[in-house]
From TrEMBL:
This is Adenosine kinase. Residues 45-290 form the Carbohydrate kinase PfkB domain. Monomer. It is found in: Nucleus. The keyword Protein biosynthesis does not apply. The keyword Kinase applies. Belongs to the carbohydrate kinase PfkB family. It catalyses: adenosine + ATP = AMP + ADP + H(+).
Length: 333
């Protein structure tokens, strides 16, 4: 969304000590992947039957894709994974203090795993990885053609996250309890539903904010049972237009109108009734749709508006750069 430059600047409020953003107040859990990015040609997409703009999980037929990508094209490596990227961007927008964002996920004991650890540290994110040696660190091939990018994720180690091996450990669960806001991408529904539910139930019981992203049409289609087990705990639901459409179809909403879909998703059953669900659907360059019940709209209108502006700003910065990378400091007022 184009933002008018003569918008009134939001007043900076002086926060009292206990209102300042504390370390570990944002918690994310997901699939830590190393992105392998390259500009490819249509033949390459066709060979592996990839749509120009999509997100899929690698199948057997894609195994050779990763080697071919590296051999045939000029590749760049970037720390990735949808949730980890979101936590990094939030940390970048906040700047100080460091380690506001916590991230949990599973990696291998290998070179790619070391890169992810180093990159998380450089981004001042407090990453606590479950490290195992059965599987190598996960990768995601980002196959770019023109303005489109087709993502093929080989989860590998990311798929090995275990609640009892990591999340349940006392020192890790303490970090979960420290958080005020939780964000998990729908992609993690394919890995550890029990981990998501444990975090979601904690947020709900303590009246903290639990946020989830639909992430991809295939999540709405093939993991809808898992998604709907978590839905009653979701305070903020994110998605884009194609995910919203897939979700509506799977839920028999009988509408293709994105505003109607947002309203119906907003009204789905919810455990913590102290918070009304907010639904946020992005549409690329088109307007962002936000659905909230009338009462919470009155109470939260201003801060939410600013949240959307901040999101548009950071997306605008990152879309111009390779991988999920950003300048040293944000220029957002």
């Amino acid at each position: 969304t184009a933002m008018a430059s003569d918008e009134p600047k939001a007043k900076k409020l002086k926060l009292s000590e206990d209102e300042k953003t504390n370390s570990n107040s944002l918690f994310g859990m997901g699939n830590p992947l190393l992105d392998i990015c390259a500009v490819v040609d249509k033949d390459f997409l066709d060979k592996y039957s990839l749509k120009p703009n999509d997100q899929i999980l690698a199948e057997d037929k894609h195994k050779a894709l990763f080697d071919e990508l590296v051999k045939k094209f000029k590749v760049e490596y970037h720390a990735g994974g949808a949730t980890q990227n979101s936590i990094k961007i939030a940390q970048w927008m906040i700047q100080e203090p460091h380690k506001v964002g916590t991230f949990f996920g599973c990696i291998g004991k290998d070179k790619f795993g070391e890169i992810l650890k180093q990159k998380a540290e450089e981004a001042h994110v407090d990453a606590h990885y479950y490290e195992q040696d059965q599987e190598p660190t996960g990768t995601c091939a980002a196959c770019i053609t023109g303005d489109n990018r087709s993502l093929v994720a080989n989860l590998a180690a990311a798929n090995c996250y275990k609640k009892e091996k990591h999340l349940d450990l006392e020192e890790n669960w303490e970090l979960v309890e420290k958080a005020k806001v939780y964000y998990i991408a729908g992609f993690f529904l394919t890995v550890s539903l029990e981990s998501i539910l444990k975090v979601a139930k904690h947020a709900s019981e303590k009246n903290k904010l639990f946020c989830m992203n639909l992430s991809a049409p295939f999540i709405c289609q093939f993991f809808k049972d898992n998604l709907m087990q978590v839905m009653p705990y979701i305070d903020v639901l994110f998605g884009n237009e194609s995910e919203a459409a897939a979700f509506a179809k799977e839920q028999d909403f009988e509408t293709e109108d994105i505003k109607e879909i947002a309203k119906k998703a907003q009204a789905l059953p919810k455990v913590n009734t102290k918070r009304q669900r907010i639904v946020v659907f992005t549409q690329g360059k088109d307007e962002t749709i936000m659905a909230l019940s009338f009462l919470s709209g009155l109470v939260q209108e201003k801060p939410l508006d600013q949240c959307v502006r901040a999101a548009h700003y950071s997306a605008n910065v990152i879309i111009r750069r390779a991988g999920c990378t950003f300048p040293e400091k944000p220029d957002f007022k």
